[in-house]
Amino acid sequence: MANPQVRALDESSFRAANTLFLRTLHAPPPTDPQWERASQVHLPGRVLGGYLDGEELVGTARSMPVELSVPGGHLPAAAVTGIGVRADKTRQGLMTELLGRQFAGARAAGEPVAILHASEAVIYERFGYGLASRSRRIRLEPGRAAIRSDAPSGGSVEILDSAAGAELLPEVYRSFGLHRPGMISRSDAWWGLGLMPPPAGERVVLVHRDGSGVADGFAHYLPAKRDYRFDDAHVTLRIGDFQARTAAAAADLWRFLLETDLADTVVAANRPVDEPLEWWLTDRRRVHVESLDDDLWVRLVDVHSALNARTFGEGEPVVVAVSDAHIPDNRGCYRIGPDGAERTDAQPDLSLDVSTLGAIYLGDHPVSRMVDAGRVQVRDPAAVPRFGRLFAQEQLPWCGTGF
Ligand SMILES: CC(=O)SCCNC(=O)CCNC(=O)[C@H](O)C(C)(C)COP(=O)(O)OP(=O)(O)OC[C@H]1O[C@@H](n2cnc3c(N)ncnc32)[C@H](O)[C@@H]1OP(=O)(O)O
After folding, report:
1. Which are the contacts of 176, defined by CB distance < 8 A and separation ≥ 6?
2. Under a CB-based contact definition with an 8 Å cutoff, are residues 299 and 83 in contact?
3. Would you say the CB of residue 40 lies under 6 angstroms from ligand 1?
4. ipTM over 0.85
């Protein structure tokens, strides 16, 4: 019988944990320069080691503290990543032990929510995570895709060298504030990691400045050439990060990308699903949606605090019973209304699992859809539209930051 054990690793084991994680993703171990950067996001107390019947490290998980934007506010959250169990030791309960330890750590650190990007969609729901935001991967062909003359515009786009980009982009991102649910803060270590490979020097960095010269958007891309003949325009621009504070900044950046000479394809993964790109184009069919992907998975590790960190729409309160297989303290009934959430002994109008509450928390899915999906049990049908109005959001959540 396996005996999964978990403990916080000391710094001397961080690189071994990172190597183990990368191996579980079928990736090579970090080189010295890669580790130099990655070590900055391995934080004492937050890198866990997993063991099965012995002292050999066979599993790992880690997290980073971030600020997460939620409807009407923001709150501290644990950004979970680096989960891996060695292939010959899987399905013996080690990840279960690692995640349980992470939940306890997040609660102790005053982080009511844990978030992650999942390698597979089937893993995390059983632990109370719900899919809370989505993104899309799109492809456009410059020349066939053009921005309309009446699309928002204002300011200019400039190319920065990578040193100037490395200095300016963190500042610009910070200046935006976490303006949409799902966005998270980016630490200096995150920027240093250069999460979007390859090395920064090979990327082209664009910055958008508004009419008064204030930087209000940026994007970077990697040009990939499929043919080395001088006269063939087989060039794909692969966008790595694209952030804009205003519609004018976003539309101007797209205009610049689509008018770049010799580029015949622009590919952007991880774009918000509600970006109005189709509305800015002369021919909306030029946006080829290659996939609709999971973005953030959200786990409310402290339901009461998490609910009270966001705001709710208008209407009559609803009493909701929450089940949670992993965190007993979360179980029970909550009265949720425009003024927030409080525990109650009243009879519930609706019941749901904490994973479903995580899925609707940022406002991506209408409550009625979760009812139709069988994820909400209804005692009082009149409570469904009320519950929907409380959680409804104008803007869809989007994280836009890999971790
Ligand atoms: C946020 C991130 O870091 S995403 C990266 C996640 N890591 C990877 O994808 C790397 C490759 N995979 C792995 O390392 C491992 O398979 C892990 C970490 C996903 C799972 O570790 P394990 O120790 O096998 O998980 P554990 O034994 O605790 O499984 C718990 C339950 O989840 C199920 N489960 C675990 N992984 C999977 C999976 N990939 N697909 C389907 N079910 C799974 C198990 O069957 C088990 O179900 P049960 O409770 O009904 O028996």
Report:
1. 216, 243, 245
2. no
3. no
4. yes
